[in-house]
Amino acid sequence: CYNAEGTVPRWELCDIPTCIVNSASPFRTVDSNGGQVAAGTEGILLYNGMLVCDDGFSNNSATVICRNMGFGGSKSWRSEDDNGIPSNYDIGLDEVRCKNNHDLGSCTSETSHDCVRMESVRLVCE
Question: Is pLDDT at 122 greater than 60 in this prediction?
Fold first, then answer.
């Protein structure tokens, strides 16, 4: 995605599943109460208010998503733990695969899933 002049690449959402230009990131990290977390704090990764599954997720995915949210990159990520995830969150994004760690346009995903809640991504951005 590019800025309004079409010249400068932007950290916008591309191909997950559509391109959103000049909009806030659809990703955010939250604590178990739904409050947004700061840099250096582990949070539950949400996409448009829904959980992100770990299938296909990688260090590249983590870095690109953190950058899309306005951070410099990712410190760590994990899954395999549904402790503290509120029951009102459903899984909304799966198979997030990024070919590199700097371009959201290199990422693909699916909105259908074959995940369980313990596969939800927890992410630390820095």
Answer: yes
